[in-house]
Design goal:
Structural class: mainly alpha
Distance between the termini: 58 Å
Number of domains: 2
């Protein structure tokens, strides 16, 4: 009877959602680099499925998974230092350099700090909004 039932099909979207949920549960902020690695896994997995192969046995998918694993490992080990790369507001360049210098001196980063730096880099549309992110990052650095 067990031989009559087939193995359930590999659900790629569910697999990627589970990876994302696991990372968030472990307190790892999914920045652009991690998101790109997961999207690459999704693309390669989809290509493998369309080619009639299982994503878990496809070499491209495996390589993308290894890349994601390395990125996660670096973040878990604490050797990934978040940096503010938003230089759109010339009046705040010295403040950004000062915060980046203090970030490089740290060895432990709370997940909230990763999120704030990522938001400052990607979401700040105005100088006032960017200043708010910088103040929150400074406060976060003082509290941890």
């Amino acid at each position: 009877m067990a031989s009559e039932t087939s193995a359930p099909a590999f659900d790629l979207k569910l697999h990627i959602r589970r990876i994302r949920a696991e990372l968030e549960a472990r307190g790892i902020w999914i920045d652009d680099e991690l998101d790109d690695a997961m999207m690459e896994m999704m693309r390669l997995g989809r290509e493998a499925s369309e080619g009639g192969r299982t994503p878990l046995t496809d070499t491209g998918y495996k390589e993308a998974a290894v890349r994601l694993h390395r990125l996660v490992k670096v973040r878990e080990d604490g050797s990934f230092v978040p940096q503010i790369a938003n230089y759109a507001f010339p009046a705040l360049i010295t403040k950004v350099e000062e915060i980046n210098k203090s970030l490089r001196r740290r060895t432990v980063f709370a997940p909230g700090l990763y999120k704030l730096v990522d938001l400052a880099n990607r979401k700040a549309r105005s100088e006032q909004e960017f200043r708010t992110y910088l103040r929150e990052i400074e406060w976060h650095l003082k509290m941890t």
